[in-house]
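name: query_chain
kind: protein
chains: 1
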Amino acid sequence: MNGSKLQENCAQRTKTILERKENEKPAIGQNQ
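structure:
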């Protein structure tokens, strides 16, 4: 149970990083 919770937290963190990168892409494109 504890291991699956750790895995879920890791997956959520990766998802957040990916979403942040996706949000930065359009902003960089607009600046250039």
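note: DSSP finds one helix and no strands in the chain.
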